[in-house]
Amino acid sequence: MRGTFVIPAKPLYEGKAKSVYSSENPDELIVVFRNDMTAFNGVKHDQFTDKGRLNATASEFFMRMLETEGIPTHFVRMSAPDTMVVRRLEMIPLEVIVRNIAAGSMTKKYPVDEGTVLDRPVVTIDYKDDERGDPMINDDLILVFHILNAEELTKVKEMALKVNKVLRGFFDECGITLVDFKLEFGKSAGTIYLGDEISMDSMRLWDKVTGESLDKDVYRFDKGDVITAYRNVLKRIIPDAVV
Ligand code: 5GP
Fold first, then answer.
1. pLDDT tens track for 117-142
2. What is the CATH number of domain 90-224?
């Protein structure tokens, strides 16, 4: 039982940190944010009490914010603190990453120092395929593999940059630098929606003053207590949230 739902025994899909279940409404799915935390394509794996709820709360907050800014998202409602009812989408197998500051894989692949502020936000896209290690993909490949048509690809990039504009400004007011983040999109009845999650697992966030990491890098690189960092973000973005 999750809020008003009796969760089916078996998920339709089990990701590394979320499980997706069918719902009584064929147009909706139920997403449970689990307490699992993984890094380096599942090589590192732990569980942290409350982690699912913290990420679900952040995701709900950002999806609602983006809807008010005109970005269609899959968010329908929360049915429990760690459980989100979402619109059923045909997911696009791409990880759309927006970067404002060089960090992570960008500094490994290219000769750019971590912390370099990029002249403008950069969109990079990975093909979502764990077995192949989510390789970077380009526009030509996306078109030739019929993952998206040209119009849809333009739309996805536009949406990603709009999300960046909204989130970057908001985080800045909260004393946090939005370094980079990953989005996933899906389609329903010809419309592209923002799907998946927007949480501390999928963003790189640095304290504006100290430069301290407040995201999954705390776990990836053993920088401290990841749950304390996630609570810190929630307290700053939603001052009246129960954290
Ligand atoms: P990078 O390419 O540096 O590994 O990641 C860039 C940004 O996208 C980071 O904020 C990172 O958290 C996010 N990201 C990239 N791939 C994934 C992924 O497979 N899962 C999640 N949750 N976030 C990702």
1. 999 999 999 999 999 999 999 999 99
2. 3.30.470.20
